[in-house]
Amino acid sequence: MSIGSYWGQEKATAAAYFEHDWFRPRDFGYLDGDGFLFYADRVGDEIRVGDTVVYPHHVEAEIMRGPRSRTAVWSGVASDGSLEVVAAVQLKDPTSASRELEAEILARCSTGTRRPPDRVVFIDELPTVLGAVKVRRAALRERLLAR
Hints:
The protein contains four helices and nine strands, in the order H-E-E-E-E-H-E-E-H-E-E-E-H.
């Protein structure tokens, strides 16, 4: 008997537990040389671009280092058989959106990450659940495709 469940998702709940109620959160990380554990990302959120695998958490963290960013989501958007990598950024002050800020974010990601986004989109509100704690990536991709 598991001690927790995903509301209304029996199959996801069953898949989340090992034998003897060991929970598998589908998050992964790594230990550095000093034994410190670092969060890498959620399993399944990685984006494959050519022969490179990039985890959104790393790019999002780099974007969030900017003082004007409230939150950011890095996503692969497939259209016409190609993959475009887009950073959707919600700003603390939406009126500060500009081509200069987009260029600044792209430049920061070009030096601080393995794979910078192809473009930056400033967005007023991200589609979220759980009281705005978790971004609904699939809904965001649909919104970006509609643009």
